[in-house]
Amino acid sequence: MNARAMLAIALGISEEEAESAVRGVTKEWDSLHHVELMFLLEEATGRLPDSDELAQITDLASLSNFIQRI
Amino acid sequence: MSSRIESLRRQEILLSPQPSRAAIRNLAPVEVMETIRIFVYRNTPAEYVTALVDPFLSLIDIRPQFSFSDYDDSLSSSTPPPADLVIIWLDFTRYSSRNSDDFGRWMANRVAAIRSTTTAPILVIGSDVDELEREDFNQTLMDDLHPLGGVKVVDPGVTRQISDDLVATTQARWTGARSLELSRLLACRWIPDALHRHVRMIVLDLDNTLYQGVLGEDGLDGLVITDEHQKLLIELRRLASQGVLFAIASKNDQSDVEVLLDSGVLEPLTRSMLLAIKAGWNEKAESIAELLELSRLGASTVLFMDDNPGELASALMRIPGLRVAHATDPVSSCSVVDWFPGVWRSGSTAEDEGRTRDLKANIQRAELAASLDPYAYLRDLAVEVNIDFSPHGSVARIAELSNKTNQFNLAFGRFSEAAVLQRIDTRGHFLAAASLRDRFADGGLIAVLSGYAEEEKLIVDEISISCRALGRGLENLIIASVLSTARAKLGTTEVLLCFVPGPRNEPARMWLENNASEEDPLWRWLDRGIDPAVASSVKVEIVGLFSATHGADSDRA
Description:
The structure holds two protein chains of two kinds. Chain A is an all-alpha fold. Chain A has helices spanning about 5-10, 15-20, 30-45, 50-55, 60-70. In chain A, helix 1 (about 5-10) crosses helix 3 (about 30-45). In chain B, the strands form three sheets. In chain B, strands 11, 12, 13, 14, 15, 16 and 17 form a seven-stranded mixed sheet that branches. In chain B, helix 13 (about 310-320) links the parallel strand 9 (about 300-305) and strand 10 (about 325). In chain B, helix 5 crosses helix 6 and helix 10 runs parallel beside helix 14. By secondary structure, chain B is an alpha/beta fold. Chain B is globular and about 75 Å long.
């Protein structure tokens, strides 16, 4: 699954909306949905991100970078 | 047809042995028949788990509507909103004294206080921390809370803790995998069980479902039972011991199927486990319709498993409300019976096993009835009816009967266990439970009647009679025996029945039409007494402490 699809599923929005979603700005990207994203990353990568890594994921670009690094 | 195929695809995702959170999250919402309001008392974020309950419960046409208390270690939240189910979900690591007797007493007091605000079933999620203390802790919790009535404690298994910094950052105690597991436990096991929404019967295909091969083509010796098939058969046997009924619907010759079952090839699945075998060349939907008629079960309590999606789609089209599952391979089939909502039970009782025997005995009773006149039939059956006006030991079964009976149900009271206890123990009320046995089987508890005195009137607000008890002409005897006793003991004369028309309670409506009218009210029917020929053919015993002053005062009387 690509990062855009993952972010869309986690936030419950369309992939087009996920392109421009920003944590703390996009209303769907609250703490509950950020944890949902954490769980989807765990399923996709086989491990939970640590708290520093989670803090750095704030938009689609940072999410894509994280997935590529794993 | 395409929507039915889509529902099978959806089911494969939800009931997969290795479910995917992403795939489940990506499922489109579906329209369902019923909304269940669930209130959660909590001191920890339960939303990570409840967020995924909806798609699983959609398999049985239920949408959960969750609301949550504030985060409160003391469980002192104010009265909850109206709810069909109350859940108590606590992070027990927050209680340093959790292994003390004081904590147990405190917990029982708090749950009793919650119980006093609602008659809804209460589900307590037990501790998931540290294997050794968890089992003892959860057992003690069950022992302390069970006497409150309508409270179930479930063991969630062990949660491996995630890192402290992640917990501090997210407030989530679980990994995603564990969170998904808890969602599935909640939706597929604990909630249906607490609400008595059980699958009562599983109808099984044979060829390429219980074994590899086609009986009619490969013969008995050509069938292959793999290790995975064996695990499935063992699981089916286990479910049978918990009271799940089984039947076969197979496109094979009846004689071939009987030889197969008698050969032991399918051990531990045996012929004695089966309510009926419908083998032949009719459409399976027709066979399943016959099984529903024979068992008198509602379609929504029956699960049909087959490797052929066409058979499943055809059955769904013919029998609305039927539950179906695609048995693609034995591993997936095992996962289906493990996880289909309503199959799991928190415990089986002698009552469950008795009901299975009683349903099988219906086949023998039908054969006897065909050969005798009605009174001779009753005498030959040697029927015994026991009516208990203090059925404290049967509260769970009474609640189950009240919630499951659809056909002979006059007012759909749908009593919770707490509501049952309230009616038994409240002054001026009565609740009677009738049990039935004959020479073929002990049918167990098969009828519930409830009501109260209002000046000189006896108001009857519930009559539920199990379908498997109908057809022997005993409804009048049971109803007359209970209402005559209640009327006398509560010092009333007139009898009024509450009737609520429903989509399936035609048998109840017809009974009412045949026995009561404006010109000939029910209490005159009671005055005339029971048909002497019936009364002399059936033994009736009335027990239980009951008097006009029976019961404690109650604010909810």
